[in-house]
């Protein structure tokens, strides 16, 4: 029995020297982290989007900064936190906006209503897909699938009033009795 254990240790040491298994003290890399590395390596980021990967390796969290260059939310600065569970890419990440804004598809707590982060998620989707989806929320807000019904109703009924309300909210103003974070 003792000889078997010694043989096993020798094989592990050989594999470690060949680089096929991590050395003691080095944490094994999860499937989620491997996929995230692959996704991040293949990103094609538009100029109005930036990402912060400083916490990505340690806790599978990614910060996404979007500054739309057109549309209702032009020149606003929006920071999202995407948290990836160990089940990624089987399950989508949880994405939240860290500021309170007036948007039909983002509620006051920062929850995001985006089909690819819910029922349309597929393991073939990646971080690039999420970035494009978030950017599209600012370029084309959707009043038909709202998390913020008040904003959706204004967008559907009066797009000019919606534009004014968004401009007020981006400056940290009050819309319909609700104060918003200054993001401009």
From TrEMBL:
<dbReference type="InterPro" id="IPR050113">
    <property type="entry name" value="Ub_conjugating_enzyme"/>
</dbReference>
<protein>
    <recommendedName>
        <fullName>NEDD8-conjugating enzyme UBC12</fullName>
        <ecNumber>2.3.2.34</ecNumber>
    </recommendedName>
</protein>
<feature type="region of interest" description="Disordered">
    <location>
        <begin position="1"/>
        <end position="24"/>
    </location>
</feature>
<comment type="similarity">
    <text>Belongs to the ubiquitin-conjugating enzyme family.</text>
</comment>
<dbReference type="InterPro" id="IPR000608">
    <property type="entry name" value="UBC"/>
</dbReference>
<keyword id="KW-0833">Ubl conjugation pathway</keyword>
<dbReference type="InterPro" id="IPR023313">
    <property type="entry name" value="UBQ-conjugating_AS"/>
</dbReference>
<feature type="active site" description="Glycyl thioester intermediate">
    <location>
        <position position="113"/>
    </location>
</feature>
<dbReference type="InterPro" id="IPR016135">
    <property type="entry name" value="UBQ-conjugating_enzyme/RWD"/>
</dbReference>
<dbReference type="GO" id="GO:0005524">
    <property type="term" value="F:ATP binding"/>
</dbReference>
<dbReference type="GO" id="GO:0061654">
    <property type="term" value="F:NEDD8 conjugating enzyme activity"/>
</dbReference>
<keyword id="KW-0808">Transferase</keyword>
<keyword id="KW-0067">ATP-binding</keyword>
<dbReference type="Pfam" id="PF00179">
    <property type="entry name" value="UQ_con"/>
</dbReference>
<feature type="domain" description="UBC core">
    <location>
        <begin position="31"/>
        <end position="175"/>
    </location>
</feature>
<comment type="pathway">
    <text>Protein modification; protein neddylation.</text>
</comment>
<keyword id="KW-0547">Nucleotide-binding</keyword>
């Amino acid at each position: 029995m003792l000889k078997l254990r010694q043989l096993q240790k020798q094989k592990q040491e050989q594999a470690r020297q060949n680089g096929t298994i991590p050395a003691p003290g080095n944490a094994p890399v999860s499937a989620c982290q491997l996929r995230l590395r692959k996704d991040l390596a293949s990103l094609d980021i538009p100029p109005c989007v930036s990402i912060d990967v400083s916490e990505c390796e340690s806790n599978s969290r990614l910060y996404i900064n979007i500054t739309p260059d057109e549309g209702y939310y032009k020149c606003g600065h929006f920071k999202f936190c995407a948290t990836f569970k160990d089940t990624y890419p089987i399950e989508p990440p949880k994405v939240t906006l860290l500021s309170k804004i007036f948007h039909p598809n983002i509620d006051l707590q920062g929850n995001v209503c985006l089909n690819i982060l819910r029922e349309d998620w597929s393991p073939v989707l990646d971080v690039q897909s999420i970035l494009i989806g978030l950017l599209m929320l600012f370029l084309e807000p959707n009043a038909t699938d709202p998390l913020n019904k008040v904003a959706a109703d204004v967008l559907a009924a009066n797009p000019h009033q919606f534009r004014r309300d968004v401009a007020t909210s981006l400056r940290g103003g009050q819309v319909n009795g609700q104060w918003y974070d200054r993001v401009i």
